[in-house]
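Hi, here's the filled form for the chain we discussed.

Project: internal
Contact: R.S.
Residues: 279
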Amino acid sequence: MRNEAQTEYWNGDAGQNWVRNADKLDLLLLPFVEALLKRVDLKQSEHVLDIGCGAGALTLSAAAIVGSERGAVGVDVSAPLVNLARSRAAVSGQPATFVVDDASSFRAEKPLDAAISRFGVMFFDDPAEAFTSIRRNLRPEGRLAFVCWAPLRENPWATIALDAVSAMLTDPLPSPAPGTPGPFSMADADDIRAVLHGAGWRGVQVEAFRPELVLPGETVPEIAEFLMQMGPAARVLQAQMLDHNHVKAALCERLSQLASTGTQIKLPSSTWIVSATAS
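And the returned structure, exactly as it came back:
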């Protein structure tokens, strides 16, 4: 089964955790939705696919632009997140549908005008095969636009929790093998170009996008809790069974150095916004 490990992961505790934190995540990642929609330049009456749609924030924003003639479809392997996306669509009234499926093998009923993704393309076992399959869903001249993380070391929002617990680790942090599915698997711009060119896309553009991110939470402990649940540190904390209270105290100390009374905590991010055209 293709992408079996990711399917299991996103239908387990991780998927439920993302459901609980969906509103905070959408606020955190809003700058990327805005930049991505500007890049893809959707038009009314177009039909768009959202790859790895999660709880549907990008899908719903796209649906509001293209309107009800064909609407937007979001695809994700996570049933908990798709269920939340469907509930959001029902409340919003936007013309969006959601499917529990693997985007690397999903088949649209009719050719699509565009495929988009907010951090949903980094989890394929075989990226070349996945992007070839996605391209075949689009009409000639159909557009692709997605955002993915640049290297981990360039994303302090993600490394601050790891740095805070470094002295507590019982084992060294593993270094994922090149090409291993995960949030930072498409961190190299040259690799992105090679994968897309190999999958038949043309006009590939990879541009850096580095907004500051406002960390979710009204207090330092709230922000620390969020980073322990949602950032790269979450898997490490679980795998090494670190003491929750000790980790939180260490992270709060680091975050307090960045905070002052009445202000938000902002940290830099580093991503790639990628666009291409189906041949």
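Let me know if anything looks off before we file it.
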